Amino acid sequence: DLPYLRMFILLLLSSLLLAIHAGHQSVGVRGTLMCGHQPLVNAEVKLWELDTWPDPDDVLASVKTDQRGRFEIFGTESEVTKISTAVKFYHRCNNKGLFNLPGLCKRKITYEVPKSYINSGKQVGKWFEMGVMNMEAKVKGEDTECI
Asked: In whole angstroms, what is the distance from residue 64 CA to residue 72 CA?
């Protein structure tokens, strides 16, 4: 039983050292959303930290686009390994909706943030600039989120 006890103690100490070593990482995304030629006002933008099962994904931040369709969102997370993040847009541009009732559902489009935009610390080092995006077109893999 002594080798098992040694292995258990070694695993426990390794886990503690990794937990102590976990550091803050930050990411920031900004851009402008359009619906055709009009700014996409009040669209919801969420920044997610993507985890693997059994740890659920975490919402790092949530904002709404302004009167010009602009958004700026950033968040931090403390992890041992490099975090994976995605920005998700929830909107009603060109949305026929459920049973042709556009107010019931929102289109949800997800973009993964390249790992090169994730930096150490609590401040954003390099912003992921998404530019001006026209949300009118359907995107492969987009989803619908209903009330």
From this structure: 9
Distance between start and end Cα atoms, the chain: 56
Q: Which residue in this structure is represented by tokens 């990794």? A: 18
Residue 19 has pLDDT above 70, yes or no: no
Q: Which residues contact 76 (CB under 8 A, 6 or more apart)?
A: 24, 25, 26, 60, 122
**Angstrom distance (rounded) from CA 100 to CA 130:** 31
Distance CA 120, CA 23 (A): 7
Q: Which of 17, 124, 126 is nearest to 77 (CA)?
A: 124
What is the tens place of the pLDDT at every residue in 87-146? 999 999 988 766 666 577 899 999 999 999 999 999 999 999 999 999 999 888 898 887
How far apart are alpha carbons 57 and 51 in whole angstroms? Answer: 5
List the Cα angle 82/8/5 in 5-degree steps.
165
Under the banding of pLDDT at 50, 70 and 90, the label for residue 32 is very high
Helices (H), strands (E): how many in the chain?
A: 1, 10
Residue among 110, 109, 92 nearest 101 (CA): 92
Q: Which of 128, 11, 35 lies closest to 75 in space, CA to CA?
A: 128
